[in-house]
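User: Sequence recovery, please. Input:
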């Protein structure tokens, strides 16, 4: 044999988690009485989005329901995992208006 075995070398390799961001577009105003609709935020990591809502609206399993007139705010968030850091929360707000504008207390 021309070559002797190399000496064993041990090293610790730490890989940093990758950053990610949330993209979340939403337009308004919306009209009270519209059907509930699916929210469409996405994370650059491809991981699932978590939503919360405040105001006269509610979100359940990514479906937004309009409950009354007023300002609705929806937050989209992705917490990250072993490979990805948490993304910054993205908040979108819009007005829910009455189907009959003369009945809308916000106008």
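Assistant: Recovered sequence (107 residues):
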């Amino acid at each position: 044999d021309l070559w002797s075995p190399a000496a064993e070398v041990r090293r610790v390799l730490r890989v940093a988690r990758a950053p990610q961001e949330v993209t979340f577009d939403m337009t308004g105003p919306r009209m009270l009485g519209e059907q509930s609709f699916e929210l469409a935020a996405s994370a650059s990591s491809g991981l699932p989005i978590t939503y919360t809502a405040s105001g006269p609206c509610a979100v359940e399993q990514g479906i937004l329901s309009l409950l009354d007139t007023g300002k609705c705010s929806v937050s989209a968030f992705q917490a990250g995992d072993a490979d990805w850091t948490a993304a910054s929360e993205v908040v979108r707000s819009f007005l829910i208006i009455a189907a009959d504008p003369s009945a809308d207390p916000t106008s």
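The beta strands are 22-23, 30-31, 37-38, 42-43, 50-54, 57-60, 63-66, 70-77, 90-97.
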